[in-house]
Each structure stands twice: as structure tokens, then as C-alpha cells.
Design a protein that fits this description.
about 190 residues; alpha+beta; 2 domains; about 40% helix; about 10% strand; binds FE2/S2 (inorganic) cluster
Length: about 190
């Protein structure tokens, strides 16, 4: 039998209002937990954190992580351990577009450092920082599994590969002009530029 959230608990309105997860997200979380045998549902913490992050403007606050822990009936530290280990989870507020530039060997050898320096100069931010308008965060990350098309970066669910400085410029311009006022997350599978 699949794991239940809080036994037979239904998500109540008070909890929803506190954190502002949508009902659709809460139902998806419940469905994920049900995939696992009784008592093993904490294996679903990674996909659940992806949902939680998308529900909270692209980052995981302490309150959101605590909320996830309460939904899953696990200890907050068990959520934090996972959230703090993987670079795809953000523990502080981020911009709407997180430009995750791969800094591992293939990408670095193929010019990722130039890409990073160019973005820093163009957006007037350093690695890990967010532009004043809240649009872009620059983040260098480890290998994203696209080594054959280095250098590359990820934004939301999209990979941008074989980067050149010109490509980076047009990419940033395109994200700016889209102006959708929404956060690009790795759950945004249909986001293509
Ligand atoms: S080294 Fe950059 S994607 Fe693997």
C-alpha cells in the first residue's frame, strides 16, 4: 500500500494559506508519496522538493522545507540534507532566470570561463548573485551531462549548448524580451527558446 500523507490527512486550507502551495501541487506531492511502499515514502523527497521550489519562486526557504517535512512526516533535517546537497535546489531567493553555467572539465576547456566572465560583466553580477531587477541569477554548477556540446548552460528546463558569446547575448536578450514575469524552473518542461 502506498504511503499516506499524515495517515488519512487531507491538506487543509490553513496549511495551504500559510505556504501558498497550489492544490494541484499538493495533490502531485501526495501522488508521488503513494508511489513508494509504506514507510519508504521519504525516497520521494527530491521530486517533492522540485515541486516545492517551483511553488516558492524558485527557492526553498526554511519554512518551505519545514512544510515539506511536515507533509512527508519526516524530520526537517532530512529535507535540509537533500536540499543543501544538490545544486538544483536554491536556499536563498533567486532571479526569474537562473543561468546555470557548467564549470566542469569539458565546459571549462571549451570556454565556460569566458561565458561566466561575460555574463558577470553584462549583467553586473558575480557568480551566485542576482540582478537588481530580480530577473537573472548567475550560478556555476558541476557537470550537467551535456559534455559533448560544451560549453553549455541550463535555464529552467532548457539546455543551451555549444555556447558562444554571441549566443549568450541573444539568449539573455530573449529572456528579457519574453517578460513573462514568471520563474523558469526545471519543472517547466515546455519552456523552449
Ligand atoms: S562538463 Fe559541462 S556538461 Fe559535462
Amino acid at each position: 500500500m502506498g504511503a499516506q500523507i499524515h495517515g488519512t490527512q487531507k491538506f487543509n486550507k490553513e496549511e495551504r494559506n500559510k505556504i501558498h502551495f497550489t492544490m494541484a501541487a499538493l495533490e502531485e506531492i501526495q501522488a508521488i508519496m503513494k508511489r513508494y511502499p509504506e514507510g519508504k515514502h521519504k525516497s520521494g523527497v527530491i521530486p517533492i522538493l522540485h515541486i516545492a521550489q517551483a511553488e516558492n519562486n524558485g527557492w526553498l526557504s526554511a519554512e518551505v522545507m519545514d512544510y515539506v517535512a511536515s507533509l512527508m512526516k519526516i524530520e526537517p533535517i532530512e529535507v535540509f540534507e537533500v536540499a543543501s546537497f544538490y545544486s538544483m535546489f536554491n536556499l536563498k531567493p533567486v532571479g526569474k532566470c537562473i543561468l546555470e553555467v557548467c564549470r566542469t572539465s569539458s565546459c571549462w576547456l571549451m570556454g565556460a570561463e569566458d561565458v561566466v566572465r561575460h555574463i558577470e560583466k553584462k549583467l553586473n553580477i558575480k557568480d551566485g548573485e542576482t540582478t537588481k531587477d530580480g530577473m537573472f541569477t548567475l550560478k556555476t554548477v558541476e557537470c550537467l551531462g551535456s559534455c559533448g556540446t560544451a560549453p553549455m548552460l541550463q535555464c529552467g528546463a532548457s539546455y543551451h549548448e555549444n555556447l558562444t558569446i554571441e549566443k549568450v547575448d541573444s539568449l539573455i536578450d530573449k529572456y528579457k524580451s519574453e517578460g513573462k514575469g514568471r520563474y523558469y524552473t526545471d519543472r517547466d518542461y515546455h519552456n523552449t527558446l
